[in-house]
Specification:
The protein contains seven helices and no strands. With about 100 residues, it is mostly helical.
């Protein structure tokens, strides 16, 4: 990779994770979309599917569970690995979006 390509990659990364990304009102929703495979669209789990709904749960509760999964102190099958893939700021955005759902 040459210097120009490296600089372009760093600039793109800075834009994707910097203050401009925090201004995107859809960022929490977009990040929470990864939860849909197990927890349903916008955290609205299918009844009797075996996954807890996340929609409408208190933000602080969602963040706390994420942190427990990440630390390995809360039992889970795959959430330990999933939670490790997000920064604290991203977890806050995801939790805020899910908490705002009805």
């Amino acid at each position: 990779m040459n210097r120009l390509t490296s600089a372009a990659c760093l600039a793109a990364l800075a834009l994707a994770t910097g203050p401009a990304a925090a201004q995107d009102p859809n960022l929490g929703r977009n990040l929470a979309a990864t939860c849909a495979n197990c927890h349903g669209t916008d955290g609205r789990a299918v009844p009797a599917a075996g996954m807890p709904p996340l929609a409408g749960q208190p933000k602080e509760s969602i963040v706390q569970r994420f942190r427990e999964y990440r630390a390995g102190t809360r039992p889970a099958t795959v959430m330990h690995q999933i939670a490790k893939g997000y920064t604290d700021a991203q977890l806050e955005l995801i939790a805020a979006h899910l908490a705002a759902q009805k």
